[in-house]
Amino acid sequence: TQAIGEATMIIRRGDADVMITGGAHSMIHPLGVTGFNRLTALSTRNDSCATASRPFDATRDGFVLGEGAGILIIESLENAQRRGARILAEIIGYGSTADAFRVTDMHETGRGPIAAMRAALADAKVAPQDIHYISAHGTGTEENDKIESLAIGTVFGDLAKKVPISSVKSMLGHLIAGAGAVELITCVLAIRDGIIPPTANYSTPDPNCPLDYVPNKPRKATVRTCLSNSFGFGGQNDTLIVRAFE
Asked: pLDDT band at residue 100, thresholds of 50, 70 and 90?
């Protein structure tokens, strides 16, 4: 997400006409699994692997590692029009913060994610009511999902319970460095196809996560503007906003 945001800023500054950007990671290896397991970040639901990734559910117990990559071509409008590109969406907002609270945890107030979302909204010059879908970081750890829900509630206020939110990590696992790019692509597809992806394996509501997580089934909707969150280890917090191109 940060790579995409910084690439967007490079184009805005006029330092490049087109950027190839995104992320990839291959973590299903003894070293990767052992490292995250020592952090107690992984689900131990080994008797039910297919449903182990359950973001925002009261019975969540950690994330499931996945592997994948997402690459985007982003460019100035002038360059896209000059080459006759099929424009899928436009990136209109980017916010990046570093709360530097703890290597593995966000601050309990959600101050970093709150600041990142507010910065992205300000950069995009849109209000919370203009957002039709939020692609959550939604890892499935107890603290992440609780604090992200708190942060969304703080930024969106009374609208927080009305905007659809989901985590595709429930279906793909956590792609680590590939996650943000794949999740932004998911937002672009939601805009293109008018379908909001669900949060799979959601069965037991958590009082600390009281929002609309689009449980278990995709939802048809008119989606024009999406907000995508990525909150990394070490207090990295990045938010992108994409909108249908008109």
From this structure: confident
Token pair of 119, please? 């910065």
Question: The pTM is what?
Answer: 0.96
Domains along the sequence of the chain with CATH? 2-243 (3.40.47.10)
Q: What is the pLDDT of residues 20-63, one digit of tens each?
A: 999 999 999 999 999 999 999 999 999 999 999 999 999 999 99
Residue 232's pLDDT is: 85
Predicted confidence at residue 101, as pLDDT, reads: 84
